[in-house]
Design a protein that fits this description.
- With 269 residues, the chain is an alpha/beta fold.
- Helix content is 44%, strand content 14%.
- Strands 3-2-1-4-5-6-7 form a 7-stranded parallel beta sheet, sandwiched between helices.
- The chain binds nicotinamide-adenine-dinucleotide.
- Nicotinamide-adenine-dinucleotide (NAD) binds next to helix 1 and helix 6.
Length: 269
């Protein structure tokens, strides 16, 4: 691995949402490629378990309990990273959630919460990591967006979609501002990746499974592990001329029909 363009030895990676799902898979893939990890999550117990896995492959792990919707906690967390590691080479902005409700019913507070969790959380982490990377003259940031960054989903996703659309523009603006100073910013746009929430919805109504799968030409849901290769690629020198991109990770969904073959009526089922 030493001469490989995918080698991450000596690099420090910060990943939010690291206790579960895509954040966990991303963290472990980066550790296996040689990076030390800062594992950020509100679920400290889960993040500690991932830290054990990172250490088992021979890398350092620091767990940071931080609510990504709270900028003050994010700023404190980055100060801790300064004293523990002294540098940041990669940021994976994975955590963040939204409240689903029909546009005519949703409370403004819930729109604000979704915005704070997904947009402010990602931006605040980008700003804190970006300042440090700009000083170093190098760094790579990956924002997790969604199909909803570029298409409408319906089914009560108004708050989520508006926030994920902002994540796409955040990625483009930051990449444009920072590319000539050595800092790259890209986004990954996943389609439905199996997680606890999706599994619960399928358990409650198995019809949802087929409706979603009809929009995914590859014929299966994403698994968190699908992010491993993209994460290592985007964190490493292998992608050194790649910035400002929005990369679908979607089993072909966007190519097929720009986002949805399932109607908005499913929201009530
Ligand atoms: N799963 C999908 O189908 C899908 C598709 C597109 C985009 N996304 C987005 O990707 C991201 C991760 O999704 P996932 O499926 O891996 O989720 P997941 O539910 O498997 O894991 C999310 C992790 O984030 C942590 N977390 C939640 N809120 C947090 C907060 N405020 N501060 C810190 N940590 C927090 C949770 O504790 C958990 O460990 C989310 O932003 C989600 O909207 C998911």
């Amino acid at each position: 691995m030493t001469n490989s363009p995918f080698n991450l030895s000596g690099k420090v990676a910060v990943v939010s949402g690291a206790a579960n799902g895509m954040g966990r898979a991303m963290s472990l893939a980066l550790a296996e490629a040689g990076a030390d990890l800062v594992l950020v999550d509100i679920n400290e117990k889960g993040a500690n378990l991932v830290a054990d896995e990172v250490e088992a492959v021979g890398q350092r792990a620091l767990v940071s309990k931080c609510d990504i919707s709270d900028p003050k906690s994010i700023i404190e967390m980055f100060k801790d990273i300064d004293s523990s590691f002294g540098r940041i080479d990669f940021l994976g902005n994975v955590a963040g959630e939204a409240i689903r409700e029909k546009p005519e019913k949703i409370r403004l507070e819930d729109i604000e919460y979704s915005w704070r969790s997904i947009v402010f959380g990602r931006f605040c982490c980008c700003q804190e990591a970006g300042r440090r990377m700009l000083k170093q003259g190098s760094g790579s940031i990956v924002n997790i967006g969604s199909l909803a960054s570029v298409t409408a989903l319906g089914r009560g996703h108004i708050g989520y979609s508006m926030a994920m659309g902002a994540v796409a523009q955040m990625t483009r603006e930051l990449s444009t501002e920072w590319a000539h100073r050595g800092v790259r910013v890209n986004a990954i746009l996943p389609a439905q990746v199996m997680n606890d929430g999706l599994q619960e919805r399928i358990n409650a109504d198995p019809k949802i499974r087929d409706r979603f799968l009809s929009g995914i030409p590859s014929g299966r849901f994403g698994s968190p592990e699908d992010i491993r290769g993209l994460a290592v690629f985007l964190a490493s020198d292998a992608s050194s001329w790649i910035t400002g991109t929005l990369i679908p990770m979607d089993g072909g969904n966007l190519a097929q029909n720009a986002g949805g073959s399932h109607g908005s009526e499913i929201f009530n089922e």
